[in-house]
């Protein structure tokens, strides 16, 4: 079972360029999340989706957008990347809330 | 504000026992989670506590005191593979997780 697949694994991006991080799950989980993880800080929620067709803002949504057209896919888009968006991005899903989160392997993004 | 505190780093010896503490302050409370994260990998779920007391799962146990805003993760019979970061996260009244920065556990032979 694949679980959650993220792509790309890593990317170097020039400031000002746009980028979409892909996330696909095969567990039919209703809820999906995007987090960023920075050294010395806890995971911070960017955006979430409780079910297909709905999205919500997390703790640090500025500069990011998401869509949830179907249950399986939850892409994260950076419209115009800035160096402060250099981070490791994790996509996660859960069958219910509160409940166990299943994480993807992460996407390491460097914005220069 | 909402806050999670846990030690930045701990060192323990293979075969020993270690306790990783976590204190939390949240707006409402819907449970306390512990995750393990090996370097360069994704976090994986270890435990969930919503009622006071100790939950045991093999070599790992998790404790919660709601009145004190306190939890700990107890790891017994430490193995080298337990070297990882341990993330504490509390769920608030909106079912949002508030994460600690993680405790890096170093196991020495």
Keyphrases for this structure?
heterodimer, A: 112 residues, mainly beta, seven-stranded mixed beta sheet, four-stranded antiparallel beta sheet, 11 strands, 0% helix, B: 109 residues, six-stranded mixed beta sheet
What this model shows, in words?
The complex is a heterodimer of chains A (112) and B (109). Chain A contains no helices and 11 strands. By secondary structure, chain A is mainly beta. In chain A, strands 2, 4, 5, 6, 9, 10 and 11 form a 7-stranded mixed beta sheet that branches. A 4-stranded antiparallel beta sheet of chain A has the order 1-3-8-7, with no helix packed on it. Chain A is globular. Chain B has 109 residues and is mostly beta strands. Chain B is built from no helices and 11 strands. In chain B, strands 2, 4, 5, 9, 10 and 11 form a 6-stranded mixed beta sheet that branches. In chain B, strands 1-3-8-7-6 form a 5-stranded antiparallel beta sheet, with no helix packed on it. In chain B, a hairpin with a 4-residue loop joins strand 7 and strand 8. Chain B is globular, with a radius of gyration of 13 Å. The model of chain B has no long low-confidence stretch (mean pLDDT 96).
The pLDDT mean of chain B sits at 96
- Secondary-structure element pattern of chain A, one letter each: EEEEEEEEEEE
Which chain pair has the greatest contact? A-B, 17 and 23 residues
Detail the poorly predicted runs of chain A. Answer: none
The biggest sheet of chain B, with number of strands, parallel, antiparallel or mixed sense and barrel status, is: 6 strands, mixed
The residue fraction in helices of chain B comes out at under 10%
Q: Describe the sheet with the most strands of chain A.
A: 7 strands, mixed
Structural class of chain A: mainly beta
What portion of the residues of chain A fall into strands of 2 or more residues?
Answer: over 45%
- Poorly predicted runs of chain B are none
């Amino acid at each position: 079972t694949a679980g959650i697949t993220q792509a790309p694994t890593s990317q170097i991006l020039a400031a000002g360029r746009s980028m979409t991080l892909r996330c696909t799950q095969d567990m039919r989980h209703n809820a999906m999340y995007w987090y960023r993880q920075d050294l010395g800080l806890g995971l911070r929620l960017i955006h979430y989706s409780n079910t297909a067709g709905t999205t919500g803002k997390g703790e640090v949504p500025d500069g990011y957008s998401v869509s949830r057209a179907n249950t399986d896919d939850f892409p994260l888009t950076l419209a115009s990347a800035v160096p402060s968006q250099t981070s490791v991005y994790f996509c996660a899903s859960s069958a219910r809330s509160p409940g166990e989160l299943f994480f993807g392997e992460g996407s390491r993004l460097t914005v220069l | 504000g909402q806050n999670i505190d846990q030690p930045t780093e701990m060192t323990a010896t293979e075969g020993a026992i270690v306790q990783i503490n976590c204190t939390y302050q949240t707006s409402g409370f819907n449970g306390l989670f512990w995750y393990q994260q090996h370097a360069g990998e994704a976090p994986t779920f270890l435990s969930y506590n919503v009622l006071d007391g100790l939950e045991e799962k093999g070599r790992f146990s998790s404790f919660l005191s709601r009145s004190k805003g306190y939890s700990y993760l107890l790891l017994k019979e430490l193995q080298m593979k337990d070297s990882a970061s341990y993330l504490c996260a509390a769920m608030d009244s909106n079912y949002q997780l508030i994460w600690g920065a993680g405790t890096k556990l170093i196991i020495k032979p």
